[in-house]
Specification:
Shape: globular
CATH superfamily of the largest domain: Ribonuclease III domain
Oligomer: single chain
Radius of gyration: 22 Å
Order of helices and strands: HHHHHHHHHHEEEH
Structural class: mainly alpha
Number of domains: 2
Number of helices: 11
Number of strands: 3
CATH class of the largest domain: Mainly Alpha
Length: about 240
Amino acid sequence: MLPEPDLTELPQRLGHEFRDPELLARALSHRSWCAEVGGQPSNERLEFLGDAVLGWVIADLSYRNHSELAEGKLTDLRKSVVNASALAEVALEIGLGKYLRLGKGEDAAGGRTKPSILSDAFEAVLGAVYVDGGPQPAFALIERLFSARMASAAQRLDRLDYKTVLQELTARQHDTAPVYLISDTGPDHDKRFFATVIVQGVAVGTGEGRSKKTAEQAAAEQAWLSLTNQSVGQEAL
């Protein structure tokens, strides 16, 4: 069995001193560790609770801080920050990976950087803070970790969906749909994705980002601008 992680510093990073430190330890207990030691509860029940607490706080912050957004956009904002990828990024920022209780196999397989394990553990920690201290410290922790992310995400909600407008453009001009070629580099926790848009066998745009969607949107934007400028130039001749 792997040695127990030292949890001394984690409460300081969270901004919450636990009256019951065992709650925090349980929040970090992956089922692979529980299977090895036997008789110990995993973090899955706390994860269930933390997911609900997170949803409540993000909905509250969205409603109060973004009065300019309609209901549909509020839903989009919530989705942009409450997903496994985004939660794993927050978990990495607070260094949660090194505190996880993992089984030997999961640890050897890179479990401390797996987005699914990190996001689940992060939600479990939120659940533990809620059980230990009540709504106020849980709300304060989520607000501190997510307010800036939400403000940044809100600014991007009204950006043009270039994949859609590019598809409409190529349908009109060429009676065809664009094709996206995707590649990536880097480890699972820090991947970079690269996209190339092909229209009628010709590369017309490239883009990159931290997700496939971001890379595709960047490539679609470049392709749309290129094809639009070509069309304007041809009309001017």
